[in-house]
Amino acid sequence: MLQDPLTLYKLIVLYMLNRVTFPLTNAQISNFILEREYTNFMTLQQAISELTDAGMVSPKTIRNRTHLDITEEGIQTLNYFGNRIGDSIRQDIDSYFKENELTLRNEVAVQGNYYKSTSGEYEAHLVAKEKGISLVDITLSVPTEEVAAAICDNWQKKNENIYQYLIQELF
């Protein structure tokens, strides 16, 4: 066992990020670790913060969700210290991804964000990706922040139907 439990939590986060080909949200990582009671929320957030400060994890905030990617430095650290993660924890993580990878991928592959444009209107930027490639990338200009937020929320729920509709109408 490791001398410092915080080091183990950092390695778990790095291992999780290294096991997938897409970014994970802070919430996705937290859900896994907290459900298994490896640690508490505050300690986990401290571990993620320290990984970010050390340049091992790269965060990107989209609306209210933080997406995390492992950096090259994080991969090197994991390669060097990854053997300190117990086999049972590795098996938990591997099983979790085997069962939930599609759901996790879909959660981060569909993004909706809005911002105020220089014209004073709001722009809702909607993206759906698969394997890192944009399938749909749409920017809609709307008059109010409320409309832009609603569009982004509905994009999360209805993106597949909208994509199918566009394909049917355009081909």
Helix content: 55-70%
The averaged pLDDT comes out at 89
* Tally of helical runs: 6
Q: Give the strand content.
A: 15-25%
Describe this structure in words.
The protein is an alpha+beta fold. It has 6 helices and 6 strands. It has helices at residues 5-19, 26-35, 41-53, 72-81, 87-109, 145-170, and strands at 24-25, 57-62, 65-70, 110-116, 122-130, 133-142. The strands form 2 sheets. A 3-stranded antiparallel sheet has the order 1-3-2, sandwiched between helices. Helix 1 crosses helix 4. The protein is elongated.
Please outline the helices and strands.
Blueprint: H1 5-19, E1 24-25, H2 26-35, H3 41-53, E2 57-62, E3 65-70, H4 72-81, H5 87-109, E4 110-116, E5 122-130, E6 133-142, H6 145-170
What's the quick description here?
With 171 residues, this protein is α+β, with helices and mostly antiparallel strands.
Which tags fit this structure?
single chain, about 170 residues, alpha+beta, three-stranded antiparallel beta sheet, 6 helices, 6 strands
